[in-house]
Amino acid sequence: MSVTSLTAARATKTLIERVYVAGPVLSGDSEGSLAVLPWRCEIFGVCPDSEFWELTANTHTGCFYYAGPTISACHGASDPKLAQNCLRELALADPLFAWIDRIDTVGLLVEIGAAFTQRKPIFLAFSDRNIADRLYFIEQLADISVVARSAPAAWKLFTHWRAVE
Predict the structure, then answer these.
(1) Rounded to whole angstroms, how far apart are CA atoms 89 and 51?
(2) What is this structure's pTM?
(3) What is the secondary structure of 8-22 as a DSSP string?
(4) Cis peptide leading into 152, omega within 30 of 0?
(5) 32-64: per-residue pLDDT in tens?
(6) Can you say whether residue 18 is alpha, beta or left, with left for phi > 0 and alpha for psi between -120 and 50 degrees?
(7) Going along the chain, which residue ranges are E strands?
(8) Among 13, 14, 22, 117, whose Cα sits 20 to 30 Å from the Cα of 65?
């Protein structure tokens, strides 16, 4: 490989980040129906074409590529390999972005702990200060934490943070 090709390859590599996008996935209604929360679609500018949809490794906004979690119709307790699949996807990601608007998202806590042990950059975005205060332990593991009015607003802060890293 020539020096020019190597320099171009390094420049290209640094321009692309595979982001693990942690946070709540499903929402239930009073009738027991589940639906995928739309905030990931809002961030990546894609529209789901069914009740359950999948963001893929090709889904991206700018230089940020979606690295997980894979969301399927059996996402949650009914998927016996969910934890292993999420942790495998996290291991392949660069930074972790987490949107936290509730405290009952148990998998999120594990993902943040795993990202910390893997020495990944961690960006936590809380929907309000009360949640951040209750989840002080994971906040201490983050490289940066913010309170934002929405997931897309938090994503904008994340992209600015990664641009200066």
Answers:
(1) 23
(2) 0.84
(3) HHHHHHHH-EEEEEE
(4) no
(5) 677 778 888 889 887 665 554 567 767 888 999
(6) beta
(7) 17-22, 26-28, 34-36, 60-61, 64-68, 96-100, 122-126, 144-147
(8) 117
